[in-house]
Amino acid sequence: MKKLSRRSLSVSLSAVCIAAAMLCSASLQAAEVGVAQTAAAAKGTFKEWVEAIAIPNDSIVAADIQRNTAWFEQAFKRRGFRTQQLANDGKPMLFAELPGNKAGATTVLFYAHLDGQAVTPSEWQQESPWKPTLKQRNAAGQWEALPIEQLYGANPNPEWRLFGRAAADDKAPILMMLAAFDALKASGVTPSVNVKILLDAEEEKGSPSLGKVIDQNQALLKADLLVVLDGPMHASNLPTLVFGNRGVAQATLKVFGPRQDSHSGHYGNYAANPAQTMARLLASMKDDDGRVTIAGYYDAVKLDDESRRVMRAVPDDEVALRKRLGIAQAEKVGQNYQEAMQYPTLNVRGMQAADVGAKARTIVPGEAIAELDLRTVPETDPQVLLGLVKAHIEKQGFHLVNGRPTDDERARYPKLAAFDYARVSASSMAVRTDLASPIGKWLRSAFVKTYGKEPVQIRMMGGTVPTGAMVGALKIPFVIVPLVNADNNQHSANENMRLGNYIDGVQSLTGILTEPFPAK
Ligand SMILES: [Zn+2]
Questions:
Q1: Cα of 147 from ligand 1 centre, angstroms
Q2: Nearest to 205, CA basis, from 108, 88, 124
Q3: Which of 170, 226, 275, 399 is an S-S bond match for 413, by CB 3.0 to 4.6 Å?
């Protein structure tokens, strides 16, 4: 295939314009990216997309994962890829590589996942989550089904959506990738980078074996850069690059009161209530603005002016966000939503002390429990953060016990607590790539050329995705390129993918694949 980047295509079109005595308009140049070709290629994969969604993909069922892996293997093979199923206890992952790799060229590993979240079919407003259903929004704002044949018509409406489990998360980006290669082939263009693809089979279960599978296939997966095709785009639906994700750690805090639940009449004012002791302890960890007051908790996080500029430029509608959350004001951890995501959290995810509602009894409870989660950041090891919390608890005068306090401990210490946490797995670790890194520059340049403007850049998203396992095992820089509409209901009922996003996604990928690395 003839190598023809968008830039050289632009030059040759310009030459044609000059030859045609300047009859060409600027619009011809704007069409250089092959918008029509990528759209045609995108539509050309709609049948395969429907076929792929129809294969159930909850990784609890190994046989279903095998069917998915086999289906995607054939789809890549049809396009000339060399493929290999990577053994993973009956739930094979898929590796695909475009032959003809150029020695010395940059190799990019694209990651996506073929498994999906579990479903509760009764919650879906269609026959089955595995029967992809085309829908349009009616005048009343309700989604109504259209004959699936309309998806394959000449001009499907970009506002229509295809509903089904994994329609967006994460089968759409895989199909978009297939379409992008169809578009390149139809244009006689070869990618500017060497391409490898890895499809995870257990992402929705936290990718427990991803690190292991990568370690077993290090030579095969060796690459210079990692591009993660997963997650939703920014809520504005503008092209988005995500440079990192927070990690997550969990801990259980128990505060002990009397040996057992005790009569609140006989022992109120005498035996300290662990729920109130717990409340004071938790309150000592944060100020009224929501900032963690534990010494050293935020110390490693340093935000420079450029990072702050990038975060301010994200078109978040915080008024709408607060309205959606139903809160009058935000906590003051960061100057805006994006900045708040750059700091570790200390979150109470559940609390209990005896029973509530009709079951509530007149007792001083024997213990109070708070389940905590910490969204962590790359600057501080989660064990260090957990250690700071632990030290803070002890500083408040608590004696920490293992399990339940012994009689001796009950006799000696007025304030007893237990603080338990496990080591954080690689897939739950925070990771981040610098905004100014070569991979960031490369992807930004691809998007600017494709769309004529800077993408939305998320320095670090708040949630956790298992990039930590990949980055830990491959030791290469990564960026997440989300391609699906933010309102796709991923992980819940009625998951859907907007057709316009699918077509744009193919264009984004075509732009990335033809962008030379490093960007000029
Ligand atoms: Zn996903």
A1: 27
A2: 88
A3: 399
